[in-house]
Amino acid sequence: MTENSTRAIGVAILGMGNVGTEVVRILTDNAADLTARVGAPMEIRGVAVRDLGKPRGIDPALLTDKPEDLVAREDVDIVVELMGGIDPPRMLIREALQSGKSVVTANKALLADYTGELATAAATAKVDLYFEAAVAGAIPVIRPLMQSLAGDTVTKVAGIVNGTTNFILSAMDADGSDYNETLAEAGRLGYAEADPTADVEGYDAAAKAAILASIAFHSRVTALNVYREGISNITAHDLASAKALDCTVKLLSICERIVAEDGTQRISARVYPALVPLEHPLAAVNGAFNAVVVEAENAGRLMFYGQGAGGAPTASAVLGDLVMAARNKVHGGRGPLESTYASLPIAPMGDVRTRYYVSMRVADKPGVLSTVAGEFSSRNISISTVRQEGAGEDARLVVVTHRAPDAALSETVAALEKMDSVLSVSSVLRLEGTNE
Amino acid sequence: MTENSTRAIGVAILGMGNVGTEVVRILTDNAADLTARVGAPMEIRGVAVRDLGKPRGIDPALLTDKPEDLVAREDVDIVVELMGGIDPPRMLIREALQSGKSVVTANKALLADYTGELATAAATAKVDLYFEAAVAGAIPVIRPLMQSLAGDTVTKVAGIVNGTTNFILSAMDADGSDYNETLAEAGRLGYAEADPTADVEGYDAAAKAAILASIAFHSRVTALNVYREGISNITAHDLASAKALDCTVKLLSICERIVAEDGTQRISARVYPALVPLEHPLAAVNGAFNAVVVEAENAGRLMFYGQGAGGAPTASAVLGDLVMAARNKVHGGRGPLESTYASLPIAPMGDVRTRYYVSMRVADKPGVLSTVAGEFSSRNISISTVRQEGAGEDARLVVVTHRAPDAALSETVAALEKMDSVLSVSSVLRLEGTNE
Hints:
The structure is a homodimer of 436-residue chains. By secondary structure, chain A is an alpha/beta fold. The first copy, chain A, has 3 domains: 9-137 and 311-331, NAD(P)-binding Rossmann-like Domain (Rossmann fold), CATH 3.40.50; 142-307, Dihydrodipicolinate Reductase, domain 2; 349-431, Alpha-Beta Plaits. In chain A, 36% of the residues lie in helices and 25% in strands. The first copy, chain A, contains 14 helices and 17 strands. The first copy, chain A, has helices spanning 18-29, 31-38, 67-72, 89-98, 108-125, 142-148, 163-175, 179-188, 197-200, 203-217, 236-244, 311-331, 368-378, 406-418, and strands at 9-14, 42-48, 63-64, 78-81, 102-105, 129-130, 154-160, 227-228, 247-259, 265-277, 289-296, 300-307, 353-362, 383-389, 396-401, 404-405, 422-431. In chain A, a hairpin with a 3-residue loop joins strand 11 and strand 12. Chain A is elongated, with a radius of gyration of 24 Å. The mean pLDDT of chain A is 95. At the A-B interface, helix 2, helix 6, strand 12 and helix 12 of A face helix 2, helix 6, strand 12 and helix 12 of B. Strand 12 of chain A pairs antiparallel with strand 12 of chain B, so a sheet runs across the interface.
């Protein structure tokens, strides 16, 4: 297509759930504005749905339950994939790209594992593959990382990118409630799905961490490379202890560039619930909101904040990508694709230097503190604070360490669990967002 | 140039102050990474400086005091303008664009008035004109507004985009100090220039508001369209009063889409110091940091936070633009330019609905409150709170209104100033960031 063409840009939409419905609505309601921004009208050629019988409030002639036919149509220039899951989206997107169509997708699970294959197909066909909506909903994160920071060296990305777990942890922090009752409440309010595993066990956050790490460090990182712990073991007691330390608990997706003393670089990508000091900007991100902090050598610390989920906010991100892809179809050119030239290896979790918070029930007798402290110092781990809580049968020790290799910390915890004077290690959490 | 060309991309840098020096450093230090990201090496063809004699730590053969010759060189593909001021940058950028060179600039004063002319030249020559560094330093704001939100309808942009004034107001808030002594301190610490007028009188913030409003509302907005008040009249008493109302004072750049009942749309762009409630995200942005809150119909409220000034952070934004412009030179295509199709008119300040905080010294006698309240109600302005402070000669009334047209509010203040029972109106500030 040549510059100043006024031929309409044909759009195929795969999936009409919350996000798809909003995308169709905005394309219809804002058609005049969108046409002016693209330089040509965008026309919906069809919408692929699973159940043709369900009333959708759009022209039924647009609906199809054969997404592969829709993707194959010659009058489709851009495919918007909002079905979710690996198959059939993987195959549909690949076919779209191979036939010269640009693709916009919000499918984080697919991207976390198959960005490489899809980006190669897009590069070969010289078309766009955009996925701003896959991480942090309406918040621009992918484009700033790929484009605005293209001349900088990103050192760390740390984000709250899962609304369900942040809703649960915020509620537990606010009212001292239990994990299970809060999860049930989140389900009733529509913040947690019937099977909440992907959210509460950190799989969703890990997929997003893989996408963020790949872009930030110009390397291929997949979900399998991401160390992952969920929030289902977090207790009301953990939140209370966090509060006593002027912290709260957040499920963080962390991507870090680890530079060894000899200059060798590795990537750490990890997801776990961590203590975060109240003065850290991520501590104030509550409810279903998302935020991503990016640290770069020259830019310093940047924060991006907003709505990380929901039909309209996610549709906003999809539409931004769609307008850019359509603009490129009209004016030529295309946006940057995956860049993996750096090929940095993944550091195992054991090598990552973190801080630990360890809460344990101990025998209330002289010498316990010294024995416990000995387990840390024998592994060269420096203790930041020790707090003794309760007495008698309720005696507890709360230890916060300085930074040390995660393997040494977890070995120490294993050793503590075997000690006679330690009745049980009730909680182990990492501490993030401090300067020490 | 064709795809996969490995010819180097020639870069001319105009100006070698704080930002220019950092841009040269990063281009040199990160050459390998930048080459991988662009798809070809970027080579500095020359750096234009005012004083050739000053030692710069780079090959003196690269230096020139004739920027026009550098811009005219055939082996220059991209011009990075970091001189500041209107002339000669305006002419130099125009010539660069007209000869097919892409341009990256951080020149907010120039862009606030001449984006139209420059964007037209860029569109005609089919090259890029990027200026992420012109607003809020390292923080990606221009690209998210132009691209990520390209499919949404922005309703409001409100930002702290001037580091000098935010440093001064934060310090006054923290220690109760006076405006003049804080300004002097800011000068000593390098946060205020010898002539601080452009910062403290809001000219810098107004230029940035014009740029933001133009992009957010797809209309031409220049600095002259921006209503502007500076911070030089802000007193320690204002900060104390703000605190009593659970607020702080911030110099805000506000761009708002005003929709009348009949659907007619207008733009308001304005800069003034305003009370901001402590729970609003902008209230916590302190020191030389910047932050921009964007509200859009579908995305909801987004916030972008980071370092708004300084050599390295601003250079990070310049480099992001430079890599994108170079990438487009290698791969073809170009980024979006100014879009002014909406052509929304500017609403005069008097029509804008705001809230006022009015602090006045009053005669300590019965009936004063009722007479004062009468002046508000006669202009159909509803009062939110009235607080009486002190007694006798120090008697004060502090009135906070609900939203009303700014003209009616300022008329009321003028009337209050003429009342016998009002000894003086000591302070008038707008209140922003509330839902009422």
